[in-house]
Structure formats: structure tokens, C-alpha cells
Amino acid sequence: MNLISPLFGSFRRSFQELRSLRSLLIAAMLLAIHTVLSVFISIQVTESLRISISFIANVLTACLFGPVVGLLNAALGDILQFLIKPVGGYYFGWTLNAALAGLIYGLAFYGRLPQTVKQTEARAASVELSSAGRASATTPLFRFLSLLPFLFSVLILVCWLFAPFLTILEKAAEEPSASAALAVGKPENGTALQAVKIYLASKVSRQTELADSLFISKSAMMLAILIFIFSVLTGLLSLRKNKLFSALLSILTASILLLSWYTDRKTATAHWGFWLMTALFLFGGFFQLWLLAQEHMIDIRYLLRTLLAVATVCIFVNGLLGTYWCTILYGKHFMVYFTPRFIKNLIQIPINTALIYYLLRAMADVPEFRRLLSESQSP
Questions:
Q1: Does pTM top 0.90 for this prediction?
Q2: What is 4-114+300-377's CATH topology?
Q3: Rounded distance, CA 178 to CA 216, Å?
Q4: For strand 49-51 and strand 43-46, is the pairing parallel, antiparallel, or unpaired?
Q5: Yes or no: is domain 122-294 CATH 1.20.140?
Q6: CA atoms of 374 and 376, how far apart (whole Å)
Q7: Which residues lie below 8 Å from residue 62, measured CB to CB, with a gap of 6+?
Q8: What is the pLDDT of residues 246-292, one digit of tens each?
Q9: Contacts of 357 (CB under 8 A, 6+ apart)
Q10: d(CA 76, CA 370)
Q11: Of 4, 10, 108, 366, which is most buried, counting CB atoms within 10 Å of its CB?
């Protein structure tokens, strides 16, 4: 009963938002943002991997106006996206998936934001009084541990320079018989640095022996540049006291690398340097979250709430239900679609969790957004 009553209360308050002109106007603006993001703006990581961030508009709608408005806005967003940029025929199942995602986000985030750093620091003051045996952020050991994320970034750069990276075999449009590799004759020894140098050299000087004999994968080059930029960023940001953005960026990078490799798995061969850099990003991100938890600078409960909501959408809505729609549309066995879709959605869980948590964490510091949130909660 204690769980059902707040649940019905959320639906009731969210339904009342439909009677508010102000709420409808803001929801319409967020719907327009969702449409623009889904149709015109996306992150093209590799030639075969594109990440859409349009769902963040649905998350903001669900956070402000609850499950009912979140469900309707997400469904309308899917329909508008199809009308503006149709891909194949329309199928109601995908609209239902979008609506269920909006509903889940509404149940998870309606009227809730992560605690700010000031709030967690104030709470930490009372906790530290009763945790005499706990490691303090001022101890030499803790200060040493705080430097480890920076050392992880340095090690990633060392791997970027010297470790075998990634081979992606594909056919070039202008040279159908050529295959992509990272180094002449020995692609297994190609580093991330070589992936960038050889690709740029082949584009700048098409008449060199290198350009005539080898086609370099654009996807491998883009991933190499992404690793270099993000390793530098995470290293510099890890030196700050608040390591939240560095932690989320590290986990996000590891997830993008895994997702990129998975989408090209039929033609991609990842070498030990690729796996080591991915593991360092992933471990460094979770390690920094642990440091933040020790310093009470992150809202662990809200992060777990975000993870649970995202996992529910990715696994049950997109993974299971989305696979069922594929079997209806294309007539093949359930497992034919389930395994690749499940793995892809599993890899996307940390990406979407990081994006949603940091977005709402940033919105918690915006007074106007907090005012809108408080007004939507008032009777």
C-alpha cells in the first residue's frame, strides 16, 4: 500500500498537468526539441554507429510533468519523427516502445533531481562525525588514490602511442578490392597513432605509395581521435575535486568503444591495446564514482535510480519488446534478432545512464528549472 499510493499520486498529478496551459506549452517546446534532435542532430561515432540523444528531451518532460505527459510526449515525438523523416513503413509497435519509455522515465524522475554538491557536503558533515574508522578525504592514502584516475589517463595515452589497436576490414568506395588496415603488411601491429597518421597521409597525398597500396578505415581513425581527446579531457578533469564529469565521461567513452566495436564486429578485429584502453576507461570511471561516494559528492541513490530506469527501458522495452516487433515485421525467429539487439542495448545502458544523470545533475543547479519543478509539484 505504501508503494501503490505514491504511484497513483504521481499519475494523478501528472494527469492534472494536462489542464495547465503553461505545462502544455513547455511540453510542446520539449517535443519540438525532441523532434529536432531525433531528425537533424545525432552523434556519428563511426561510419556504422550513430548515437541519438533525442531521448533527453523526453527525460526532461517526464521529470517536469510526470508519467502521463511523458508517455504522450514520447509517443507524439515518435510519430512526428516518422512524418518528417520516414524510414520504412510506420509500425505502431515502435510508438508503443517510445510511449513506454516515457512512462518509465516519468515514474523514475517525476519531481526528483539529484542532490547538489552543497547538499551532499552538508550531509557529509553529520556522517563524518559518526564514522571515525572511515577513510577521510584528507588522509595521504586518499590523496594518493585521488591521483590514480590521472595515471589511468596517462597509461591510456601510452597505449594510444605504442599498443596494437584495431583493425577494421572494409571495402573502399573508390578501390573495391582494397581492405582497411592500420599498418602496411602488419595490421596487427598498428597503433592508434598509426591509424590517424596513415589515414590523414592517404587523404593528403593520394599519389604516395602508402595511399596507392592501402585503404585506411575511417572508423578506426575516428575512434583513435576520440580516445585521444577523451583521455586528455578525463585526465585533466580528474585533477578537480569534483570528479563527476570525468567519471561519467570515462564510462561514456568505454561504452562508445564497446558499441562501436560491436556494430563493426563482422569486419573488426580488436587487439589487446584496444581492450586495455577500454578497460582503463571503464575502471577509471567507476573508480572515480567510488571516490566521489567516499567524499559524499555524488547522489548514489539517484544514480542507481537512473541506472534502474535506463536498464528497464533498454532490456525490457527495446530488447525484449522491440525484438518481438521485429519478429512480427520480418518473420524470423525471436533469437535471430534478440541476441544482437540485447548486446547493443546492454552496452548502451552506461551511455544513457551517464547522459541522463549528468543532464539532471546540471539542471539541479538551474534555478528556473527547479522553480518549474516545484510549481508542477504544488497542488
A1: no
A2: Arp2/3 complex 21 kDa subunit ARPC3 (1.10.1760)
A3: 9
A4: antiparallel
A5: yes
A6: 5
A7: 69, 70, 102, 105, 106, 108, 109, 110
A8: 888 898 889 888 888 887 777 788 899 999 999 999 999 989 888 88
A9: 114, 248, 302, 303, 306
A10: 26
A11: 108
**Cell of residue 264, nine digits:** 563493426
Give the bridge partners for 269, in sequence order. 167
Euclidean distance between CA atoms 199 and 161, whole angstroms: 16
Q: Report domain extents, the chain.
A: 4-114+300-377, 122-294
Secondary structure in 3-state letters for the chain: CCCHHHHHHHHHHHHHHHHCHHHHHHHHHHHHHHHHHHHHCCEEEECCEEECCCHHHHHHHHHHHHHHHHHHHHHHHHHHHHHHCCCCCCCHHHHHHHHHHHHHHHHHHCCCCCCCHHHHHHHHHHHHHCCCCCCCCCCHHHHHHHHHHHHHHHHHHHHHHHCECEEECCECCCCCCCEECCCCCCHHHCEHHHHHHHHHHHHHCCCCHHHHHCECCHHHHHHHHHHHHHHHHHHHHCCCCCCHHHHHHHHHHHHHHHHHHHHCCCCEEECHHHHHHHHHHHHHHHHHHHHHHHCCCCCHHHHHHHHHHHHHHHHHHHHHHHHHHHHHHHCCCHHHHHHHHHHHHHHHHHHHHHHHHHHHHHHCCCHHHHHHHHHHHCC
Query: What cell does 63 get?
Result: 521529470
